[in-house]
Amino acid sequence: MQRLIKHLGLVDYEPTWRTMQSFTDSRTADTPDELWVVEHHPVYTQGLAGKPEHLLRLTDIPVVKTDRGGQVTYHGPGQLVVYLLIDFKRMHIGVRELVRRIEQAVIDMLAGQGITANGDVNAPGVYVDGAKIASLGLRIKNGAVYHGLSLNVDMDLTPFSWINPCGYEGLRVTQMKDLGVDKTLAQVAELLLPQLEKHLTVVKETA
């Protein structure tokens, strides 16, 4: 079944999240999967396991307590966010495998731009020399996935210094711009979406 790609532009976080919830709640077995490509106004999002002590200082950046997994992260202009609204049951794989496939899509895209990156089995996301370049947070409800990944492209990284990113004290963050890749969000999305499509397509083995 063909996945639909929607480019939503620069949008507020909370209404987008609520729309994801509504979409997921109203899914049927015939609902096509969708990938939403967005950019967010500055916001901290705190996952279900989020602890307030990971917000290190008060700022004028809003904090939204959301229903994805994980701790606190930052979204802002210049960061590519792809929400994965996927019928997980159709894939016939486990959650850990899903996470690995999403990470690998980012790793392969970055490799094509000359950046060597890796995942971490103990801390979901994608890293370059120990610095986090992409974050991952998912929610699975009634066999369907929502939320997704964020990739730092060309943004102000300062707000990350005001939190413990993803709950890790002193975790460094990086972005494609600082690693020598000068591309727009739209250009990066064009590179990443085919990799996501490739890695999220599960080929069933035949007898």
Automatic annotation (TrEMBL):
GO biological process, one term: protein lipoylation
GO cellular component: cytoplasm
PROSITE patterns on file: BPL_LPL_CATALYTIC, LIPB
Pathway stated in the Swiss-Prot or TrEMBL entry: Protein modification; protein lipoylation via endogenous pathway; protein N(6)-(lipoyl)lysine from octanoyl-[acyl-carrier-protein]: step 1/2
Reaction(s) catalysed (UniProt annotation): octanoyl-[ACP] + L-lysyl-[protein] = N(6)-octanoyl-L-lysyl-[protein] + holo-[ACP] + H(+)
EC annotation from Swiss-Prot or TrEMBL: 2.3.1.181
A GO MF term: lipoyl(octanoyl) transferase activity
Active site: 166
Source taxon at top rank: Bacteria
The keyword DNA repair belongs to this UniProt entry's keyword annotation: no
CDD domains per the UniProt record, alphabetical: LipB (cd16444)
Residues flagged as site, Lowers pKa of active site Cys: 132
Cell compartments where the protein resides: Cytoplasm
InterPro entries cross-referenced by the UniProt entry: aa-tRNA-synth_II/BPL/LPL, BPL_LPL_catalytic, Octanoyltransferase, Octanoyltransferase_CS
Record domain BPL/LPL catalytic: where: 29-204
Keywords of this entry: Acyltransferase, Cytoplasm, Transferase
Keyword Transferase annotated: yes
Enzyme class at the top of the EC tree: transferase
Binding site for substrate: 68-75, 135-137, 148-150
Family per similarity comment: Belongs to the LipB family.
Function: Catalyzes the transfer of endogenously produced octanoic acid from octanoyl-acyl-carrier-protein onto the lipoyl domains of lipoate-dependent enzymes. Lipoyl-ACP can also act as a substrate although octanoyl-ACP is likely to be the physiological substrate.
Family matches, as HAMAP family: LipB
Misc: In the reaction, the free carboxyl group of octanoic acid is attached via an amide linkage to the epsilon-amino group of a specific lysine residue of lipoyl domains of lipoate-dependent enzymes.
UniProt-recorded name of the protein: Octanoyltransferase
Gene transcribed to yield this protein: lipB
